[in-house]
Amino acid sequence: MSNGNNRYTRVAILLHWAIAALIIANLVVGYVMEDLTGTARSTALNFHYSSGLTVLLLTVVRVVWRLTHEPPPHPESMKPWERHAASLGHFALYLVMVLMPLVGWAVISANPPIGSEGAKAIISGELGSKVDAADVRRASRKAPRMIWGVVELPEMGFLERIAETPDGVRPQRILHDELAEWHKVGGYLTIALLLLHVLGAVKHQWFDGEAEFARMGIGRSRADKP
Ligand code: HEM
Ligand code: HEM
Q1: Residue 217 buriedness (CB in 10 A; 0-12 / 13-18 / 19+)
Q2: Is 132 in a helix, a strand, or coil?
Q3: Closest to 86 in 3D by CA, of 208, 3, 180, 225
Q4: How many whole angstroms separate alpha carbon 11 and alpha carbon 215?
Q5: 3-state SS of 5-30?
Q6: What sign does the dihedral 198-59-24-179 (CA atoms) show?
Q7: pLDDT tens-digit map of 111-149
Q8: Mutate to test the pocket of ligand 2, among 48, 95, 176, 191 (most ligand atoms within 8 A of CB)
Q9: Among 1.10.3720.10, 1.20.950.20, 1.10.10.10, 1.10.287.380, what is the CATH number of 10-224?
Q10: Hey, how many other C-beta atoms are within 10 angstroms of the C-beta on 108?
């Protein structure tokens, strides 16, 4: 991925910052969304899943890029344990970049299919106290979700179909909440990894005197300097 002056290539840098911006936006929107209702909530959720699935797509491109390009060599001052820690941290970030969108996608898919018997039973109130307002809101959806308003979001059918009939409503709800919990924990994990990642970069830049940020396109690398 290197271009000879200790900098990732332009494509790698562009992908890194696009993915970073979308993930950070998604963390903010994710937490804010919880307190929203009505149109504000659905607008936020539309942005959230569109952005998250874009992260998934860009990450696939990035992983292919990474596997076919050599990254720039680490600076000499970096100790072996620091190199291992950096590789481990990057690997964990890649996992987050793939798993967060997939689990989020699973959360959204674990809802009754539009117009199914399960959805009708929830809306009609025949399931009584087994369902709440959030279930009714999710079961009342009339149109498929659209990514960036353009591409239809395919639901994960095997999760959606669980509540095709009223019998499946309760088990699907349990699974939905379980997946949402994993997604929430994943959000905290993402923040922790991001903080470690930034702290690592700051350490190399400011304390070790390396042109660390320049590796990812911020400022000039040593080779650029006159
Ligand atoms: C959620 C946001 C972010 C994610 C998911 C992320 C992910 C990654 C990953 C996976 C790599 C390894 C690249 C590779 O070799 O394949 C990397 C490298 C890097 N990132 Fe980030 N990053 C994020 C935010 C940031 C931020 C805010 C900074 C600013 C300090 C930053 C600075 C860097 C630098 C300097 C490198 C190059 C590391 C090196 O090889 O020396 N990243 N990032
Ligand atoms: C970069 C990827 C993503 C990140 C970092 C992220 C982060 C978050 C965060 C922090 C929350 C708030 C969690 C809480 O406190 O309950 C959240 C909620 C949510 N996310 Fe994501 N998300 C991502 C991708 C996705 C995708 C692709 C989808 C759907 C296709 C999705 C669907 C949801 C849903 C439905 C909720 C609300 C869950 C609930 O009802 O509790 N997310 N997300």
Answers
A1: middle
A2: coil
A3: 208
A4: 13
A5: CCCECHHHHHHHHHHHHHHHHHHHHH
A6: negative
A7: 999 999 999 999 998 888 878 988 999 999 999 999 999
A8: 48
A9: 1.20.950.20
A10: 23
pLDDT tens-digit series, residues 152-187: 999 999 999 999 999 999 999 999 999 999 999 999
Helix, strand, coil percentages, rounded to 5, for the chain: 70, 5, 25
Take atom 19 of ligand 1 and give the residue whose Cα is closest: 216
Q: Whose CA is nearest to atom 35 of ligand 2?
A: 108
Is residue 6 a contact partner of residue 225, using CB atoms and an 8 Å limit?
A: no
